[in-house]
Amino acid sequence: MLALRVASRRSVFLYSLVSALFQTSLSKIRKMSQECKFVQVRSPSSTTPTSADIQGIPGPIEVTDEVLYANAHPSMSHMSPDFASVFGNCLRMTRQVLYSKNAQPFLIAGSGTLGWDQVSANLVEPGENALVLHSGYFADSFADCLQTYGANVDQVKAEVGDAVKESDVETALKSKKYKIVTVTHVDTSTAVLSNIKGVAEVARRVSPDTLVVVDGVCSVASEEIRMDDWGIDVVLTASQKGLGTPPGLSILVASQRAIKVYENRKTPVTSYYASWKKWLPIMNAYERNGAAYFATPPVNLIYAYHASLQQIIQGSVSLEDRFKAHKEASRRVKHAAAALGLRCVPLSEDVSANGMTAIYFPDGLAASDVIPRLLKKGVVVAGGLHASIKDKYFRIGHMGATAVDTKRGDIDRVINALNETLAEAKASKA
Amino acid sequence: MLALRVASRRSVFLYSLVSALFQTSLSKIRKMSQECKFVQVRSPSSTTPTSADIQGIPGPIEVTDEVLYANAHPSMSHMSPDFASVFGNCLRMTRQVLYSKNAQPFLIAGSGTLGWDQVSANLVEPGENALVLHSGYFADSFADCLQTYGANVDQVKAEVGDAVKESDVETALKSKKYKIVTVTHVDTSTAVLSNIKGVAEVARRVSPDTLVVVDGVCSVASEEIRMDDWGIDVVLTASQKGLGTPPGLSILVASQRAIKVYENRKTPVTSYYASWKKWLPIMNAYERNGAAYFATPPVNLIYAYHASLQQIIQGSVSLEDRFKAHKEASRRVKHAAAALGLRCVPLSEDVSANGMTAIYFPDGLAASDVIPRLLKKGVVVAGGLHASIKDKYFRIGHMGATAVDTKRGDIDRVINALNETLAEAKASKA
């Protein structure tokens, strides 16, 4: 019924807008015809001791000028053909980032967290079982969300710094019938990388009906994910990490198998805003470069996401090389930390993320010795987050432009700041 | 427990960022020090027949250059003191727009629709009664949302073009115990204005425990709302209408009475992303200009909202004069329509919105005769939306800068385009 209502509404929205020209002009002489490039400028840290030039946090990450410029697009109707075409491109390019041919993307105004609600409300019915693989803080939150919607949740917990072993996943999946298994690809609290390909392989082999749900908030576009080849059913993420866009967009991609499970559910979806019943006709309309209405999409952010996807999918660096660039940036940061005698939170290279690094403070130094000094050098990093070790480590993000556009020199700057900071901090204690 | 976890986490986020300088520079000569004003330019409609210069739709509305510029703010950490202070200001200024001293604002990444989920999930427990006053399309949607979360919903429906009469509200409220009564201040489908002050007065008098919930998506900052004086418990809205910001921000303000009702609920909140249990500690932290984490806020959009609120609250036009400007713009558009012999959807001036106008096509003309012609003249309007009359009328938005900044000449342009369009359309049928 909704689909019909939407379709009939769309037919009377006869908007047609020009591709809005968008130029900046010289303020003094008001010559509107003269263009002037849009460039973000931060204050140089050398002259402003408290300035911070690099968002070296695991999101929101540094975004390119082109993306910011697109985020300042003049107002456009969400029902206009121009916007519909941009939205349609975003759906298709999102699919490409995940190497999927026919999975269903959902682009909805919201934080990454809304992806958990989408999974919990649409794919799991009250009383059904969910298996959560725990490699850090965000598994607890996903479990909390699933329980809110009535799921029975079991967690398999890895020790801090490790991912859940595939053998443990196999044991758990054989013990009980699970509707879904969730795995955090990169847990932002620990920088632990899980082997989602391995988890999916185990699930397909020992519990083929269980849907494999990947929390890819801190991994999409910084770590390789091959949804179709690996048999992954859901990847949920957000705009402000590897996808290089300001925050505010919940991005979820569901396999057709997952969509069928949703379509065959026996009980109604228990969320309104996160309901695929509402959003599926909308995404289908935009996919056909048409427009449909359930709730007003974040128009400007969609333009910004489009600009970033174009850089990711159609830019000078291929998607494969983008993953390599993240590995190289990661290798450099982790090598620098090791050269300083610092230990990372992930227990081995196999479980180490490529888009961020979590580093224990050395003996005798604390957050207050390290983080403010990095800040003075223009590098913003994040403190600890995992409850059991939160005061003992800090986190550096190196995703998107920071990892891929080596001309920026972000990684050099992070490493230099780290070297200088550790030397100063140790000297201050001597 | 969450509050504790959040508090402890916050303490280790020791970010401190400079107020990011943000300048544009001349691209040709790369003189970064020379400033260049950020101005949005649209193509003149005279040279491009398909161009559209004015978003004359009831949202997303035209936004100012300063707001767009703020939306292009370089990446900032959501945990930084700079951002926290901006977020805190947004909370305080949101309260000011509604003339409230101590109501609780929630600013969450999402569409306006998410406000319905917040009300339905936090304030109404499954099996409780909700009364929905129907003055158009959006009441049906709000009712649908309430039912999704288990409420028993009764609707009192006004005839098309009218608001529900206070006597009918009184009868309904006396017939049954209702947890909440909802009223759409301006229904975007009909441009009908409801007397929310009157509804609140009736509720307080005959059913004092019933919470009065105002859907103010199409009214906040374009129509006067005095939350405290009028005894309103919830106002929910979105960023892209009277508040003059790009879409993507769900804005809800709850009275302390409503917060108490939420705190005293017997059953757990049945949404995760819309749960005030999650968001209340976050809003409290930002109110104190600190930061806390549940889900990453839409950082850039908060900067944009801040810029718009500064113009609304601290700009050269007072809030009172802003409402007057909307009335004047509305009077001009409606007068022009009347002079053309056109009839508005609202049945009387008393129930006519000031931020938009819904106009029936004259006999013999249809959407296809009018809307494309307006588009050619650079005025984007919206088609019909209310199911029973949707092909018979169109809608013009005149909120925010379009109504208040008369130097823009938007209203003149809309009226001229309307006059020319009707003359041409009639001539083509002669």
From TrEMBL, chains A, B:
- The PTM N6-(pyridoxal phosphate)lysine maps to K241
Q: Name one Pfam family in it.
A: Aminotran_5
Name one process (GO BP) from the record.
Answer: glycine biosynthetic process, by transamination of glyoxylate
GO molecular function ontology, one term from the record: L-serine-pyruvate transaminase activity
Supply the alphabetized keyword list. Answer: Aminotransferase, Pyridoxal phosphate, Transferase
Give all residue intervals belonging to the Aminotransferase class V domain. Answer: 68-388
Entry keyword annotation includes Ion transport: no
* EC number from the UniProt entry: 2.6.1.44
Class of the enzyme per the UniProt entry, highest EC level: transferase
InterPro entries recorded: Aminotrans_V_dom, Aminotrans_V_PyrdxlP_BS, PyrdxlP-dep_Trfase, PyrdxlP-dep_Trfase_major, PyrdxlP-dep_Trfase_small, SP_NH2Trfase/AEP_transaminase
Q: Where does substrate bind?
A: R395
Gene3D superfamilies associated with the record: Aspartate Aminotransferase, domain 1, Type I PLP-dependent aspartate aminotransferase-like (Major domain)
Which protein family is it in? Belongs to the class-V pyridoxal-phosphate-dependent aminotransferase family.
What is this protein identified as? alanine--glyoxylate transaminase
* Organism for this UniProt entry: Pisolithus microcarpus 441
